[in-house]
């Protein structure tokens, strides 16, 4: 394209101004989870903008998981600040996977990195493993691939929770949720899940014994069994 | 709360139906980056909903980084599908950090995990290091903490890019962007950046030599120098 010497003027849209003001109240005035924002009409009056601009800003904040949706609360209730980074991350990953701009291989490699780290942390801190044992029992009782994947997801998210890092746990949960369909297919293709069961027991026992290195290796070999065609192997 | 035996009816909001239909077109009909969605008015007519519901759905998709904002294109242009997961992730992390539901320690531990992994991958694949060298030169020429952090961010994002995993690179970029203010304070507190410089040279040379283990150790020690009070140390 010919350079005319002109540059486009950056036009800020009204809802973006609303967003910026809400974000400033959060970071500078210390608004936090549980605090209520003014009702839509009141906020629109105070900011001198249309109610639809306020509504658009609220949709953005809901999408990012920082205000709760107020379905059925009526327009005067005012949105409540919340913090659900994992649901926001899940929507984000699912859509970018849908657009095929991220490959399943990249998601599984990311999961591999996180899960090795989390298993080692959980082992080192001798974390509580009761959620892992419960998920294992759930997998044993599962009658369909969907049910199996539900409890399998709980097992692996419990490892991330046990690491004690909430950001890493949120990323893990969103990775698993966004690849749910793919996991169900992988379990169906595998048919027999006894190898996966043995892997899960090995991971659980290594974390219980506080054996970080063994937990890391068990996670790697488990992913190689679960995704034989995709798994990149230890870097 | 007393259990009355009644459960709230799940009410779907109109813009959520619009979103679901757009997502179905993406995943089932293979709409992808560069494809154009119908204009706001046209989409509202085809779906039998108000234009404001369509606009709310578009704000959600913009927020998630899957449609580009059409500022100045006029309402008939129609949004274009895009894929910018890192800008979406940055907004998400910045707001959750602002709400103080994530601690800087959790962000830095996540960065440590990613950066060790990425440096090892980059070394193992003998990745191109020219972007790292350019960022190093930028840091040497920096006159303020802000300028230093800008090039420092470029250096560390270049390591993640060199790993070849776009999801991990997007997470890294968003972590760095969301903690920018904190990084500037850390550099100011440190005053002398010569230790950081030596660390960067060591990371760069280890990647160039293909020494994955040395690159991993160099990343760890660098973060301990940069954030002495916060850094958790190797797990």
UniProtKB/TrEMBL annotation, chains A, B:
Gene3D superfamilies: GntR ligand-binding domain-like, Winged helix-like DNA-binding domain superfamily/Winged helix DNA-binding domain. PANTHER family: TRANSCRIPTIONAL REGULATOR, GNTR FAMILY, UXU OPERON TRANSCRIPTIONAL REGULATOR. Keywords: DNA-binding, Transcription, Transcription regulation. Residues 12-84 form the HTH gntR-type domain. The lineage of its organism: Bacteria, Bacillati, Actinomycetota, Actinomycetes, Streptosporangiales. It holds the Pfam family GntR. The keyword Transport does not apply. This is Transcriptional regulator NanR. One of its GO terms (molecular function) is DNA-binding transcription factor activity. The keyword Transferase does not apply. It comes from [Actinomadura] parvosata subsp. kistnae.
